[in-house]
Amino acid sequence: MISTSSAWRRTLARNSWVLGVWLLLGSLIVWYSTLIPVFGQFQIVSISKNSLPLIYLAIGQAIIVIAGGIDLSMGSLLLLANVLAARFMDDQSLGIVFVVAVGVIVGLALLNGLTGYVISISGVPDIVVTLATSYIWSGLALWILPSPGGGTAPELRWLFTGSPSGIGGGYGMPIAMIVIPALLVFFVSRRTRTGLSLYAIGSHPVAARLAGLNVRQAKIVSYAIGGAMAALAGLATVAITGTGDPRFSVGASATLNSVAAIVLGGVALTGGEGSVLGVVATAVTLIMLNPILTAMGIDSNSAQVIQGVLIAGVMMFGGLAILLRERRS
């Protein structure tokens, strides 16, 4: 019994930040429900489906950062997936839409895996290579779809939004599309040899290499997972909006939000630490800030400033907590 309780205490200690961000999200949902006249299915559907793109980007970014990298092209990959889906799914049968969706996920996984390979063999810092590729993917997105347009099948919209039209519907499908990919990536990262090697390489690449781990393979795998999650984010975006949008500003904002979400979720930018489950909660939290501030009667410009200050404050607090923990250990 003592050993069991000790194991629980160790588990809670290791996951205290993750637990904290989920409690914060729960508190925000309860608070939001008191700020509006009615809180029900419509609000739950809206929060869950609108959070999907950022959740997917944050999960992908988290895996890359855990492995010791960072990907500034995640938002551009979202744009590329978004316009590819909107361009080639428009007015197509369900079978073609399914083939395009799978092709986009596999294609972006391979494409971003290639980015990881280039980084590993060149020795050029991740931030430099991915900044360059962000412009390449954004340019390709504009070439494929020069202006907003295109579309997708009602079935794909239902898969991500719970409604064939993308409006209304139930919250079962959006929540399932949050839970299934998050648990799948969590299982891969925590319960497989490859996933554990990502943590080892992010913590100390030299020691990991001396221990016989394939550092190059781990780098490629982390970027491939990031590319697949960015593709899912692009598919979710076209399902929610019904169109493709190649604007660079959309991708840049998405990249910055994905980095904010992982830091708030307890993923150390130095690598080797954190959980994708924490970033799911913080991604939803970031999406909820705007409607909460609007419900409080704060205008959009002031809400943007307040949102930035809150994110910066929590990130500084998280960095200080990590620093203190490292000093104690």
SSE diagram, text form:
Layout: H1 2-14, H2 16-35, H3 41-66, H4 74-89, H5 94-122, H6 126-144, H7 154-161, H8 172-191, H9 193-203, H10 205-210, H11 215-241, H12 248-264, H13 276-295, H14 300-328
Helix pairs in contact: 2-13, 3-8, 3-9, 3-11, 3-12, 3-13, 4-5, 4-6, 4-11, 4-12, 5-6, 5-11, 7-11, 8-9, 9-11, 12-13, 13-14
| Mean model confidence by pLDDT | 88
State the helicity in percent bands. over 70%
How many discrete domains? 1
Rg measurement, Å: 20 Å
Q: What is the multimeric organization of the chains shown? A: single chain
CATH class designation: Mainly Alpha
Task: Produce a short descriptive summary.
The protein is mainly alpha-helical.
Notes on the protein architecture:
By secondary structure, this protein is an all-alpha fold. The protein has a single domain, classed as ABC transporter involved in vitamin B12 uptake, BtuC (Orthogonal Bundle), CATH 1.10.3470. Helix content is 79%, strand content 0%. It has 14 helices and no strands. The chain has helices at residues 2-14, 16-35, 41-66, 74-89, 94-122, 126-144, 154-161, 172-191, 193-203, 205-210, 215-241, 248-264, 276-295, 300-328. Helix 2 packs parallel to helix 13 (276-295) and helix 3 packs parallel to helix 8. It is globular and about 55 Å long. The protein starts with a helix and ends with a helix.
